[in-house]
From TrEMBL:
Residues 32-83 form the HTH cro/C1-type domain. Coiled coil: none annotated. The lineage of its organism: Bacteria, Bacillati, Actinomycetota, Actinomycetes, Propionibacteriales. InterPro entries: Cro/C1-type_HTH (IPR001387), Lambda_DNA-bd_dom_sf (IPR010982), MLTR_LBD (IPR041413). It comes from the Bacteria. It comes from Microlunatus parietis. This is Transcriptional regulator with XRE-family HTH domain. Pfam families: HTH_31, MLTR_LBD.
C-alpha cells in the first residue's frame, strides 16, 4: 500500500467514525463494535459495492474515478476543503466548483484599497471589475468614474473595455498581445465553468459586436499565467511599464486579484512614488 493510499484510508475511516446512521437517514441495526457507520452503509449511500469501498479504505483499489470520489464526498458531507483533500489523497483532479456568489467581500476590498498606490483590482470569473483602488483606476480607467463597478456593472468588464472602449484600447502599446492574453483567460474560465451564464452572455455579445474578438476566440488561445509585462501609453502619466501578479483568494477560486508592479528605480516606479508622496 502506498503512503497516499494509507492516508486516504485513514481519512475515510475517520469520517466514517464521525457519522451515525441516523445522521444520514439510515436505520441502525444490531450492535456496533466501533462508533460510526459500517463500511456496507457507506457503500450503500455512495452507490458502490462493499468490497470496492473496502479496497478503497485499504488502499488497494487502484485508480479511483472522480465520480466515485464525488459520491464519497457527498456521503460524508465533506466541505470544500475536505473534498479537495480527498481528491489530493486519491491523486485525482476534482471538477471545478461553480463560481461563488458575485460581489467583493469587505476584507478583500480593504486589501485592494490598503496597498494603494500599488495598482490592484479584483476580477470575477467573466472578468467583471468587482473593485479597484485609486491608482489602478487612474492608470486603467481615468476616463471612467471610480465607482464604475457599482454604478455601471454592465460596462465594468475588463475584456469588454479592451475591445469596445476606444480610450481604454489606446492605453495598450501592445494591444494585440494583451487582447490575446485576456481572450485566453476567458477561454480558460469557460472551460472551468461551462454553465456560467455571465460567461456565455459575454462571449456571445463580444462575438456579435467585435470581429477581432471572434477571430481571436476561434484561435483557442489558453492562458492562466500572468502576462508578466504590459506597456502603456497613458495620456497623463506618460509611458508606463508594469508587470502583473495574479492571485486567487483562498476559498474563492473564481476571483482573481490583479496587482501591477513597477521595476524598482524605473521611470514607472518614480511615477508611482510621486503618487505615494502626493
Amino acid at each position: 500500500m502506498s503512503r497516499s493510499g494509507a492516508e486516504l484510508g485513514a481519512f475515510l475511516r475517520a469520517r466514517r467514525a464521525g457519522l451515525q446512521p441516523g445522521d444520514l437517514g439510515l436505520q441502525s441495526y444490531g450492535s456496533r463494535r466501533v462508533a460510526g457507520l459500517r463500511r456496507e452503509e457507506v457503500a450503500l449511500l455512495a452507490q458502490v459495492s462493499t468490497s470496492y469501498y473496502t479496497r478503497i479504505e485499504q488502499g488497494t483499489a487502484g485508480v479511483i474515478s472522480a465520480a466515485v470520489l464525488e459520491s464519497l464526498a457527498r456521503t460524508f458531507e465533506l466541505d470544500d476543503d475536505e473534498r479537495a483533500h480527498l481528491f489530493r489523497l486519491a491523486k485525482v483532479a476534482p471538477a471545478e466548483p461553480e463560481p461563488g456568489p458575485g460581489g467583493l467581500d469587505r476584507d478583500l476590498d480593504r486589501l485592494v484599497k490598503a496597498i494603494d498606490p500599488v495598482p490592484a483590482a479584483v476580477l470575477g470569473p467573466s472578468m467583471d471589475i468587482l473593485g479597484w483602488n485609486r491608482t489602478c483606476h487612474l492608470i486603467f480607467g481615468s476616463h471612467l468614474t471610480f465607482e464604475l463597478p457599482i454604478r455601471e456593472p454592465e460596462r465594468s468588464n475588463w475584456i469588454r473595455l479592451l475591445f469596445v472602449d476606444p480610450e481604454y484600447r489606446r492605453l495598450f502599446v501592445d494591444w494585440t498581445e494583451v487582447a490575446t492574453d485576456v481572450v485566453g483567460r476567458l477561454r480558460t474560465s469557460s472551460g472551468r465553468w461551462p454553465a456560467h451564464g455571465g460567461l456565455r452572455e459575454l462571449i456571445t455579445d463580444l462575438g456579435e459586436r467585435c470581429p477581432e474578438f471572434l477571430e481571436l476566440w476561434h484561435r483557442h488561445p489558453v492562458r492562466d499565467r500572468p502576462l508578466s509585462g504590459v506597456r502603456l501609453a497613458h495620456p497623463v502619466l506618460g509611458p508606463l511599464e508594469l508587470s502583473d501578479v495574479v492571485l486567487s483568494p483562498v476559498g474563492r477560486d473564481d476571483l482573481r486579484l490583479l496587482i501591477f508592479l513597477a521595476e524598482p528605480g524605473s521611470p514607472t516606479a518614480r511615477v508611482l512614488d510621486r503618487r505615494r508622496a502626493s
